[in-house]
Amino acid sequence: MAGTAVTVHTRPGDNLAIHRAFDFCRPGDVLVIDGGGELTQALMGEIMATYAESLGVQGLVIDGAIRDVGALSAHDFPVYARGATHRGPYKNGPGEVNVPVTVGGMVVHPGDIIVGDADGVLAISPDDVMTVIEGAKRQADKEAAALRSIAEGHFDRDWIEAQEKKMMAV
């Protein structure tokens, strides 16, 4: 998943602001929702996720609960959530759209680049995108070299003893 953040801050368990946020979503966006990490009330389920997908949203990142997990997993649409519950949301507000939010301890600003895979989600400031891409390429090259050395039978583990000695001296 990759796209531009549209952010929502909502009262835990309440999705009125999320419904309003759909008006701000454009194809290529990722909807990032700060629901305070609350897990007792779902912020959305299959219907809202399907609607987001119909708008061209690339995925959902929800610091809160969802429902309809079985139905959502049958879709080819990324939904990252803190948890799941059978209890549906309130629709009372308040909430804010396109303000800085916090999701899992990560601050996300409107317009940040959101990238997600099976390991999790990352928010990148547009100003930092090239630096992050270059760092990711260096890390991928390093990991590919390590995997090659394992396959060839000469994986370097000499550093372990030196590191242990260094740590014992501290």
Description:
GO terms for molecular function: metal ion binding; methyltransferase activity. InterPro entries: RraA/RraA-like, RraA/RraA-like_sf. Substrate binds at residues 45-48, 67. The longest helix is centred in the C-terminal third of the chain and has 23 residues, at 129-151. The chain is of the alpha/beta class and 170 residues long. Strands 1, 2, 3, 4, 5, 6, 9 and 10 form an eight-stranded mixed sheet that branches. The protein has a two-stranded antiparallel sheet with strand order 7-8. The chain has five helices and ten strands. The protein folds into two domains: 2-124, Ribonuclease E inhibitor RraA/RraA-like (Glucose Oxidase, domain 1), CATH 3.50.30.40; 130-169.
Features:
single chain; 170 residues; alpha/beta; Glucose Oxidase, domain 1; 2 domains; two-stranded antiparallel sheet; 32% helix; elongated
Helices and strands in order, then pairings?
Blueprint: E1 2-10, H1 16-21, E2 29-34, E3 42-44, H2 46-54, E4 59-66, H3 69-73, E5 79-84, E6 95-97, E7 101-103, E8 106-108, E9 113-117, E10 120-124, H4 129-151, H5 159-169
Parallel strand pairs: 1-2, 2-4, 3-4, 4-5
Antiparallel strand pairs: 1-6, 1-9, 7-8, 9-10
Number of domains: 2
What kind of assembly state do the chains in view correspond to? single chain
The mean pLDDT is 96
What's the CATH superfamily of the largest domain, by name? Answer: Ribonuclease E inhibitor RraA/RraA-like
Radius of gyration: 20 Å
Uncertain runs with pLDDT below 50, 5 residues or more? none
Compute the number of strand runs.
10
Q: What helical percentage do the residues reach?
A: 25-40%
- What gross morphology would you assign? elongated
Number of helical stretches of at least 4 residues: 5
Provide the CATH top-level class of the largest domain: Alpha Beta
Task: Describe the sheet with the most strands.
Answer: 8 strands, mixed
Task: Give the SSE order as H and E letters.
Answer: EHEEHEHEEEEEEHH
Counting helices, strands and paired strands, the structural category is alpha/beta
The percentage of residues in β strands lies in 25-35%
| CATH topology descriptor of the largest domain | Glucose Oxidase, domain 1
**Termini separation:** 42 Å
CATH architecture group name of the largest domain: 3-Layer(bba) Sandwich
Binding site for substrate: 45-48, 67
InterPro entries: RraA/RraA-like, RraA/RraA-like_sf
GO biological process, one term: methylation
Protein name: Putative 4-hydroxy-4-methyl-2-oxoglutarate aldolase
